[in-house]
From TrEMBL:
The organism's taxonomic lineage, starting at the top: Bacteria, Bacillati, Actinomycetota, Coriobacteriia, Eggerthellales
Residue ranges of every copy of the Adenylyl/Guanylyl and SMODS C-terminal sensor domain listed in the record: 409-503
Any Pfam family: DncV-like_NTFase
Catalytic activity, as annotated: GTP + ATP = 3',3'-cGAMP + 2 diphosphate
CDD domains, A to Z: NT_2-5OAS_ClassI-CCAase (cd05400)
Protein name: Cyclic GMP-AMP synthase
């Protein structure tokens, strides 16, 4: 693939993520709600305190792949495990166990004056939070089942990690729901999250991000502040799934854990990571190869529990629609067969955003142009950058001035300046070394017009002691403008706000500064 095309598509897809992913503030709300429920369930007079309850997060909050709902009345799911360490399957039926945990969940809802009664679902108790985040908290009652499950795995010749922790959970659809039995459904939520985050190389990206943002330690950085590429791929695919199947209401959409598992397996299978978009392409193109079919049906085993088949209920129709969806995702998100040109077809960008349920009135993913930028762009001599602009890397300008042989001092956009002053403009952004820095200088006003020096074109800067800057002098009265662009492989990844150079006849006042 062409490097410019890959970088352009990466910019478009990553630029859409802010409209898709769960906001950091909502992750913080979910953590607060989780902490409050944990405190209540483990309090001294709790009905389940004697069984040593252990509360933990699972699901998309744990794996960092949560996305926004596609409708205004949709909700975010927060998945919680309530594991009782000192209770066994020989002590209680699934129904009795579900009711025991339900007493505490109902008590929590009552204490906090929640608008809705907790819902007794197939496996979980569901708490509905009536705030702007519109959370649904699913509480899954579980009993430790590690030893029994390990014996079952050994019997079938399956391997497991020594630290694996298997949990038996309730399911009211089972025939033995009201009977004492050892045959409960079993899962390993913490093991699954560990597998996925390892596949995503999450700790490596977290360390890298912490260093970039100058955190004192990795631990200071919230887990939800980091998004590894694999997490982003899953978020994009889940959103595309939601939109595609919402237009086909008669067919069941694949579960998020199926998408997450297939994407993780495909990402693990990449021998050499070539780049963000290249890796996403590889994931999408190879996902379906990890679905197996035998005489018993379709199979995709939980990587953290080989006895759990995520596709146990799949039919041939489910598999067929999954294949159709994958083909649609490849077409909408990868645009195979296209090449990047300055007249890159608008309908490709539009189709990408439409397939993600996003507004399509803007062709490029970019920030909203400021009034100043619109003013400058309207000047006839202000050139237009002849490259695709995705504008996902924040960049700003720091300026310094020197007049009459003095020292350079910082000044702000719009500050009055005299003629014959020396100026330096520095590009300020993360990882500048990865980009070419271009400068655009645009003059305006009567003196520059009379001197036929309106300029408006693009210029190279200099690098001194690792700092990227552009030197200029003040020559003509009026307001003039400096802009900075970050360019890589023929794509502009960042564009600064224009910096105003305000040249006035005020040498006396300047000398007093």
């Amino acid at each position: 693939m062409d490097a410019r095309f890959n970088n352009y598509m990466e910019g478009q897809l990553r630029g859409n993520l802010s409209d898709i992913e769960m906001p950091d503030s909502y992750y913080a709300k979910a953590e607060t709600a989780y902490a409050a429920l944990t405190k209540y369930l483990t309090r001294r007079d709790s009905e389940i305190r004697q069984y040593d309850p252990e509360i933990s997060l699972q699901g998309s909050i744990k794996t960092g792949t949560a996305i926004k709902p596609i409708t205004d009345d949709g909700s975010y799911d927060v998945d919680i495990v309530c594991n009782l360490l000192h209770l066994t399957k020989s002590d209680i039926t699934q129904k009795q166990f579900k009711s025991l945990v339900g007493i505490e969940v109902r008590g929590y809802a009552s204490k906090h004056n929640m608008e809705h009664e907790p819902r007794d679902g197939k496996r979980c108790w569901t708490l509905e939070y009536a705030d702007e985040a519109n959370f649904h908290m699913d509480v899954l009652p579980t009993i430790d089942n590690t030893e029994w499950h390990r014996r079952a795995m050994k019997f079938k010749g399956l391997e497991f990690k020594p630290e694996a922790k298997f949990l038996a959970h309730t399911d009211k659809r089972r025939d033995d729901y009201e009977q004492i039995t050892q045959d409960w459904l079993t899962t390993n939520p913490s093991g699954y999250a560990d597998w996925f985050l390892d596949a995503a190389m999450f700790n490596e990206y977290r360390t890298r991000t912490a260093e970039k943002r100058a955190y004192a330690s990795v631990e200071e950085m919230k887990v939800y502040e980091v998004k590894a590429p694999l997490q982003q791929y899953v978020q994009i695919l889940k959103r595309h799934r939601d939109i595609w199947f919402s237009e086909r209401p008669n067919h069941s959409a694949p579960r998020s854990i199926v998408i997450t598992t297939l994407a993780g397996k495909a990402y693990e299978g990449i021998a050499t990571h070539a780049g963000w978009f290249e890796d996403m392409s590889q994931v999408l193109l190879t996902m379906t190869s990890f679905i197996q079919k035998d005489n018993e049906g379709y199979r995709l085993c939980n990587p953290a529990n080989e006895l759990e088949n995520f596709l146990e209920e799949w039919s041939d129709e489910d598999a067929s629609f999954f294949d159709e969806w994958i083909k649609a995702a490849i077409s909408d998100l990868l645009s195979p067969g296209c090449e990047l040109r300055n007249d890159f077809p608008k309908d490709v960008r539009t189709q990408m955003r439409r397939s993600l349920g996003l507004p399509t009135n803007s062709g490029l993913v970019t920030r909203t142009a400021s009034e100043l930028l619109r003013k400058i762009s309207s000047l006839s001599h202000h050139k237009t950058l002849s490259l695709p602009i995705v504008d996902i890397v924040p960049v700003s300008i720091r300026a310094e001035k020197c007049w009459g042989g003095g020292i350079f001092r910082q000044f702000q956009s719009g500050d009055p300046l005299p003629k014959e002053a020396e100026l330096k403009f520095y590009a300020v952004a993360d990882d500048l070394k990865h980009y070419e820095v271009k400068w655009q200088i645009t003059n305006d006003g009567a003196e520059a017009t009379k001197a036929k020096c309106l300029r408006g074109g693009f210029y190279q800067g200099k690098i001194v002691n690792g700092r990227r800057f552009r030197g200029e002098e003040t020559s003509y009265l009026g307001e003039h403008y400096v802009e900075c662009y970050l360019i890589k492989d023929g794509v502009c990844y960042g564009q600064s706000e224009p910096f105003i150079v305000n040249i006035t006849n005020t040498k006396e006042s300047y000398a007093r500064q």
